[in-house]
Design brief:
Length: 202
């Protein structure tokens, strides 16, 4: 395994990048399992649930639909752990293809790619396409070398604008608690910190 601290990240065209194994594992951990049950045969299965107020039915590791586009419903049958992993991987692969297509000519580090794909997995490709992160990154394709650091940094900072869920500002303590949305803000802060770390090495 390579030591990323010893070598500065290199930006390459997004068409040549794919989600790292570490990033997918991190997604699974952050999304969690949701409610599970044990079948009569001893198999652990994941049941549909609504993570927080304003969310849609979800199953497994953050999956809100199936490969054919059918939305998850609360009445759906539970799925096994293996199916939960498979579903999450398949949906990520689909999102990655759309994500890469949305950034023609853009170059990213592996770390930047991972965190922006992670954002897309949580907020959806539609929100990614309309985001200021994407706009700043597209601007890098026609920018001068002197302008590039500012544009990549601006894309990082734009992550912090995505802090609302169901009309609530998730950065405000009054919207935290058992039924709150602090996790939305925490994940954005984590993505922002990772993004800035990629800039330091450039």
């Amino acid at each position: 395994m390579s030591d990323r601290s010893a070598v500065s990240p290199v930006r390459i065209a997004v068409l040549g990048l794919g989600l790292s194994a570490a990033a997918f594992a991190s997604w699974v951990v952050k999304e969690g399992d949701g409610p599970t049950a044990v079948r009569a045969d001893g198999e652990v299965v994941h049941k549909p649930y609504i993570p927080t107020k304003g969310d849609v039915p979800t199953i497994g590791h953050g999956s809100t639909r199936y490969e054919d586009g059918t939305p998850v419903r609360m009445t759906d049958a539970p799925i096994t752990r293996a199916r939960a992993q498979q579903l999450a991987r398949n949906l990520h692969s689909e999102e990655e293809a759309r994500f890469r297509a949305s950034l023609p000519g853009v170059a990213l580090t592996q770390g930047e790619y991972d965190l922006y794909v992670d954002f897309t997995g949580q907020f959806g490709i539609g929100n990614w396409r309309s985001s200021s992160m994407r706009r700043r990154l597209l601007e890098t394709t026609t920018a001068t070398p002197a302008q590039l650091p500012g544009l990549y940094r601006a894309a990082c900072d734009s992550l912090l604008l995505w802090k609302k869920q169901d009309g609530r500002d998730c950065s405000l303590p009054q919207n935290w608690g058992p039924k709150g949305c602090k996790g939305v803000w925490t994940r954005q802060q984590q993505r922002h910190a990772k993004c800035l770390a990629e800039q330091v090495a450039q």
